[in-house]
Design a protein that fits this description.
Distance between the termini: 29 Å
Oligomer: single chain
Structural class: alpha+beta
Shape: elongated
Number of helices: 13
Order of helices and strands: HHEHEEHEHEHEEEHEHEHHHHH
Radius of gyration: 33 Å
Number of domains: 2
Largest sheet: 6 strands, mixed, barrel
Helix content: 55-70%
Strand content: 15-25%
Strand order of the largest sheet: 2-3-8-5-7-6
């Protein structure tokens, strides 16, 4: 009997192809939007996690000042080399501590120029960031001590200023100083925050202080812990050490911030997950609109086929058989919309992830839920018109022209 109901539903749908297509369009758009939003959101989350993992889950960032409502002003004194050496000698379970100072300047190479980020560091920075060189070498100890004008460039700088060719040994003008390129970093692409990690020039921090910044401030310290270390314990040790170094008495607020990469990664992941859920919920509203469309068209179908229903009831068809016929018709419509919506959503997500450069991450559970939800839409919104058809009085139905 069910197969007969399905066959009759197919005939009814094919008799009004255009109307049937417009009816399921809402379901197609709803399912497609939900799947596309969730797939793109999952890809974004996966990219954020990968970018964070590349920086290292055992990283901590120490910076002067605190930020946010009700906190101390960010105008706090920067760190210095004594702070750096104290952290390097007194912290346990720490692999490296790297000083970082940076500024945006203009680069010139031949007829090419661009504005980019120049970062002053020492060799501990490469270990902390687990960033290898594609060509050339790191800084020599003599270069770090003397502040010689040498630099290591990112892949983007190499492409834009040297055409992606051999850059080692060439001279790059950084602001007002001539700088010999001694290395090229491996390409990393965009960070989880959307910035190009390869658009950077790295130079010895003393060179940066003398020739670019004009001071000896260290605005940031990158602390890379050992793999098996407890970063929460290290964070507590850093806070204790910095409070002592900066003469902060008990009861007073810190004038520095220590951020754990694990906390940053968790926050980023939670944010992208929440946004994905929100977008999926908004897209899901169109599924309800599609369900209402199915109910409307089924009511119209009942009105148009009143005489047909009356004949079936008059020759012995049971109410449940008529109910099943119209309910199956509504479910077939919504399931067709669900299948088409899944194909549309995955297609749109594939195009979008390719354009955005994020992983194409299909979540089978969401696809299954979207398909089942489309079936549920057919049942819920098709039941009332089907019940109305089943309860028609055969005599009154046969009188209808």
């Amino acid at each position: 009997m069910l197969m007969e109901a399905v066959r009759l539903a197919q005939q009814a749908i094919l008799r009004n192809m255009l109307r049937s297509f417009l009816t399921v369009l809402g379901v197609v758009i709803g399912v497609g939007a939900v799947i596309a939003m969730v797939t793109i959101g999952n890809g974004t989350t996966a990219k954020v996690k990968a970018d964070m993992a590349r920086l290292g889950s055992n990283m901590l960032f120490v910076s002067p000042g605190q930020f946010g409502p009700g906190r101390a002003s960010s105008e706090a004194k920067p760190f210095n080399f004594r702070d750096l050496e104290t952290m390097r000698t007194q912290l346990s379970n720490v692999r490296v501590v790297a000083p970082v100072a940076q500024k945006s300047v203009t680069l010139i190479a031949g007829s090419e120029n661009r504005t980019t980020l120049v970062r002053g560091v020492d060799n501990a920075y490469f270990a902390a960031q687990t960033w290898d060189l594609a060509a050339g070498r790191e800084f020599l100890d003599a270069e770090l001590r003397s502040g010689r004008s040498v630099c290591i460039i990112g892949a983007t700088v190499n492409d834009k200023l040297f055409g992606g060719g051999e850059a080692v040994g060439r001279v790059l003008r950084v602001s007002k100083i001539a700088c010999e390129v001694i290395g090229v970093l491996t390409a990393r692409g965009q960070s989880g925050f959307g910035s190009d990690q390869d658009d950077v020039v790295i130079m010895p921090i003393r060179t940066f202080h003398r020739r670019i910044a004009g001071n000896t401030d260290i605005p940031s310290l990158y602390v890379s812990a050992n793999e098996d270390a407890d970063t929460a314990k290290i964070q507590s040790d850093i806070e204790y050490l910095m409070r002592e170094r900066r003469n902060i008495t008990p009861g007073k607020r810190d004038d520095f911030t220590v951020r754990d990469m694990k906390q940053i990664a968790e926050t980023q992941t939670a944010t992208t997950t929440m946004l994905t859920g929100l977008l999926a919920a908004v897209a899901g509203v169109s599924l309800l609109v599609g369900g209402i469309g199915i109910m409307n068209i089924m009511l119209v179908s009942v009105t148009e086929r009143t005489r047909e229903i009356g004949i079936r009831l008059a020759i012995g068809a049971l109410e449940r058989q008529v109910l099943r016929q119209f309910l199956v018709e509504a479910v077939v419509l919504s399931l067709f919309g669900g299948v088409a919506g899944i194909a549309l959503g995955l297609g749109l997500a594939r195009i979008a992830t390719g354009a955005l450069g994020i992983p194409f991450s299909i979540e089978p559970n969401i696809v299954a839920i979207a398909f089942l939800f489309s079936a549920a839409v057919g049942v819920v919104f098709g039941y009332f018109p089907a019940r109305r058809a089943a309860r028609l009085d055969p005599i009154e139905a046969l009188r209808r022209e």
